[in-house]
Every structure is written in structure tokens, then in C-alpha cells.
């Protein structure tokens, strides 16, 4: 073969060898790009998870701090103090915090109901308002009833266990009085109830009852409404009424109110259960034909309670004396 032909074949072979690795490299490039993109996505997901995890922990701490001070957990506060510039992650962080609260602490955030609109100025605003959410939350327990004890569920910000018990009993009693009086209680009638309970002297650390009521308003347990039109034509106390606040509706349920009334009443009574059914949204209870002690309930006590609902006074002492005398004769 002539030298020129050999030389040309060598040149062609060399060019083919150079092109083969280049083509192989071009075939390999799409896979390498895909792998790189997947790695970047995984890194981004890990970064998002780590950021969300920190925000979830921060929201859990913020919620528990608010509950400790009996302050509502507001959505604006979450955005400002927890999320910062991560406002779009609200739903993810909120749901993650709920899961953590349920699994670790036996609690969850529950949205507060919207405050009732009772004045003439507020009612038109209510009809024109499109939003039905309060955007405020409180922590409630999701533990079974058997575990809802003071030894397991620590109280909120207190000075002592006795003070906490007295404070809870005080606002529970007032909320119960408001609910069994149709959801609204005039200021003079509330004051008569408080005098009957000796609330002016049995105060918390020398705190006046008016100051305690104002504190309950700030914390959302009570709502004080003053009718401006009625105040112009009558006394301010007569124009003032008390209602149950959003936090009070969540923390003190109708079942809890019924339990308090039964405990104060002290005996099973079909008449009492009937009146509780009419006043509260509670489940119907099956009662025996007679009371727990085998004696039919005293209707006279029910009449005394009816009088108390009208004038803010409890059962008379004379009636209680007759009751005790009758029981002593039965024992003899």
C-alpha cells in the first residue's frame, strides 16, 4: 500500500478515537445533571425541614409561655415573634406545633370563638364583617379525663396552689351564674351574688373584687357590656351587664357548669336535671326514680333556687334549718 494511503487511514482512525470519548461524555452529561438536581433538591428539603423544625419548637415555647400567663395566642403574635420573614410557612409550622403539643405535652391549640356583639354599634359591624375567625388560640388538654388532675396538669401563673384553686373557683362560679341566668347577668344581680358569697372579704391577697373582675375581663373570661342609651335614662349599674368571654366559653364548658351545680346541690334530682337541660347544652342523664339516699328530692329547695334566680339570693337559713330538723327526725 502506498505510504500516502496509510497515512490518511491513520489520520482518520485518530480522529474517530478522539470523537468516541467526546460522544460518550455527551451521553453521560444528562444523567450527571439529573443527579446534581436531585442532590440540590434534597439539600433544599433538608434545609426547609431544619428551618421548619426550629420554628415549630419556637412556636411550642411561645404557646406555652402565653398559656402560663393566661394570654391568648394570637396569629399576629405568632407571625411577629415566631415566624419573622417566614410568614408563608404559617400552616406548616402551626400543624407541626400541634403535633408536638399533642404527642409530648397532651395539649393542643384551639381557636377562641369570636366575641359576642351586643351593642347597637357592634351589631351592624358584625353583619358587614366577612371574617368569622378570631385568629386567637388557647391551649386545652387532650388527655383522658382520668389524667386531668392537678398533679399531672400544672396550673398557670400562680402564687400558690390554694390561690390557683380559689381563682379558678371564683371565675367558674361567676361563669356558671351567667350561663344559668340565660347567658347575661345584670351588674346589680352579680353584686348581690358576690355579697352572698362574701366575695368582698374573701379576696385574693387583699385584691378588691372589682380588680379581680377587671383581670377576668383582660384575660377573656368575662365581658362587661354597658348600654349607653340605657345609661342616659337610668343608673349605670342597671345599664351594665356581664357575659361570658371567649376564653371562658372554651375553658368552662356547659358540662363543667352542670357538674358544679350538681356538686353544690348535693343530691340527685330529676327536677334539677330538667332545669339544667333547659339552661345548658348538656347530655341527658339517666337518673333513678329516687335520690342517692333513697329519698325523693325536696321540691321546696327547688323553689328556693327559683327565688335565688330572681333576686340573687340563695336558699334561706330558715328553710335549711327545717331541712336539717326533718333529717334528724328521720334518723331517729
TrEMBL record:
InterPro entries: MAGE, MAGE_WH1, MAGE_WH2, MHD_dom. Residues 31-48 have a biased composition (Acidic residues). One of its GO terms (cellular component) is nucleus. It holds the Pfam family MAGE. Residues 59-257 form the MAGE domain. It comes from the Eukaryota. Residues 1-48, 283-332 are annotated as: Disordered. Transmembrane segments: none annotated. This is Non-structural maintenance of chromosome element 3. It comes from Cytospora mali. The lineage of its organism: Eukaryota, Fungi, Dikarya, Ascomycota, Pezizomycotina.
Amino acid at each position: 500500500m502506498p505510504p500516502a494511503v496509510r497515512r490518511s487511514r491513520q489520520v482518520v482512525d485518530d480522529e474517530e478515537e478522539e470523537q468516541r470519548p467526546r460522544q460518550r461524555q455527551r451521553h453521560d452529561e444528562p444523567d450527571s445533571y439529573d443527579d446534581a438536581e436531585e442532590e440540590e433538591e434534597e439539600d433544599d428539603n433538608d434545609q426547609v425541614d431544619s428551618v421548619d423544625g426550629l420554628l415549630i419548637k419556637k412556636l411550642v415555647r411561645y404557646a406555652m409561655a402565653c398559656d402560663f400567663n393566661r394570654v391568648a395566642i394570637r396569629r399576629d403574635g405568632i407571625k411577629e415573634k415566631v415566624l419573622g420573614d417566614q410568614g408563608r410557612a404559617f400552616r406548616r409550622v402551626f400543624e407541626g406545633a400541634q403535633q408536638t403539643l399533642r404527642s409530648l405535652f397532651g395539649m393542643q391549640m384551639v381557636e377562641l370563638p369570636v366575641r359576642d356583639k351586643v351593642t347597637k354599634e357592634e351589631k351592624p359591624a358584625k353583619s358587614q364583617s366577612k371574617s368569622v375567625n378570631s385568629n386567637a388560640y388557647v391551649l386545652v388538654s387532650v388527655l383522658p379525663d382520668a389524667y386531668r388532675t392537678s398533679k399531672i396538669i400544672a396550673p398557670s401563673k400562680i402564687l400558690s396552689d390554694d390561690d390557683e384553686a380559689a381563682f379558678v373557683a371564683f371565675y367558674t362560679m361567676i361563669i356558671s351564674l351567667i350561663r344559668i341566668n340565660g347567658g347575661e347577668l345584670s351588674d346589680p344581680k352579680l353584686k348581690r351574688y358576690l355579697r352572698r358569697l362574701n366575695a368582698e372579704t374573701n379576696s385574693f391577697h387583699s385584691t378588691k373584687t372589682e380588680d379581680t373582675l377587671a383581670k377576668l375581663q383582660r384575660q377573656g373570661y368575662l365581658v362587661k357590656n354597658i348600654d349607653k342609651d340605657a345609661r342616659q335614662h337610668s343608673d349605670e349599674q342597671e345599664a351594665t351587664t356581664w357575659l361570658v368571654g371567649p376564653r371562658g366559653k372554651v375553658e368552662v364548658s356547659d358540662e363543667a357548669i352542670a357538674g358544679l351545680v350538681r356538686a353544690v346541690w348535693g343530691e340527685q334530682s330529676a327536677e334539677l336535671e330538667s332545669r339544667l337541660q333547659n339552661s345548658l347544652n348538656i347530655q341527658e342523664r339517666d337518673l333513678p326514680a329516687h335520690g342517692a339516699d333513697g329519698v325523693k328530692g325536696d321540691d321546696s329547695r327547688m323553689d328556693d333556687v327559683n327565688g335565688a334566680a330572681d333576686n340573687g339570693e340563695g336558699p334561706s337559713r330558715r328553710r335549711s334549718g327545717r331541712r336539717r330538723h326533718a333529717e334528724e327526725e328521720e334518723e331517729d
